[in-house]
Amino acid sequence: MKILMVLTSHDQLGDTGHRTGFWLEELAAPYYVFKDAGAEVTLASPEGGQPPLDPKSDDPDAQTEATRRFKADSAAKAELAIRQCRRPVVAALNGTVAGAGAVIATACDLRIAAPSAKIAFLFTKVGLSGADMGASWLLPRIVGLGHATRLLLTGDFIDAAEAHRIGLYHEVVDDAVAAGRALAERLAAGPSFALEVTKDALNREAAQDLRSAFEHEGEIQAVCMQNPNFREAYQAFVEKRRPRFV
Fold it and tell me: Is the pLDDT of residue 7 over 60?
């Protein structure tokens, strides 16, 4: 069973100036009901980015067993933060990438690996569902259903060359950290808003039909044309220089 939990809330209470957001217990309680029943749970927000948390729900007297468990669940929080981050996230992988680490790497937008970076989704090896932490949502979208089925059912390791061949790794290089940092710096110097809406579209349109995707892309392209980065790209072309994006 697959569950998509969409967190929605305003970040301010009307025009009072007081912060608000989703109530942590209202997320954590059903989240673990589903997880403990064996469901694969994916967390999302309507427009990408981190959904606002009601600060009062983080007070000590508002804590429950479920909220304490969620706060201690570093893997769940890490994956949610990656997918909701408005900027591209680059993973630099060395050595063994396994279990929760494999899913967190898969949640990243780009994966640069060293030749030593073997990877496995080990959950079935220990009697757990291979569909954990959103793996069966993420992995088929990257490598296809056939490869994802093999990886999640067997829990077997594949080496970096095979991960690259099936599209799980974008690059395999000797110094993954240096290459990953260089790619991250390149993206950081790029048009931030354009990258943000592109990442959002990749997430959002996975659940849309083609007509809806066309409509959504037309809308966001019109918005991008009003962004200063579009004008800067034009000016840079005319002046034969590199654009200076914000």
Answer: yes
Domains (ranges, CATH) in the chain?
2-84 (3.40.50.880), 90-185 (3.90.226.10), 191-239 (1.10.12)
Token code pair at residue 51: 């959904």
77 forms bridges with which residues in the sheet?
A: none
DSSP SS3 for 146 = helix
Residues 72-97: pLDDT tens digits? Answer: 776 666 666 776 677 889 999 999 99
The pLDDT value recorded for residue 110 is: 95
Structure tokens at 226: 């009003």
CB 27 within 8 A of CB 62: no
CB distance 111 to 105 below 8 Å: yes
Q: What three-state secondary structure class fits 97?
A: strand
Half-sphere exposure of 58 (CA within 13 A, CB side): 9
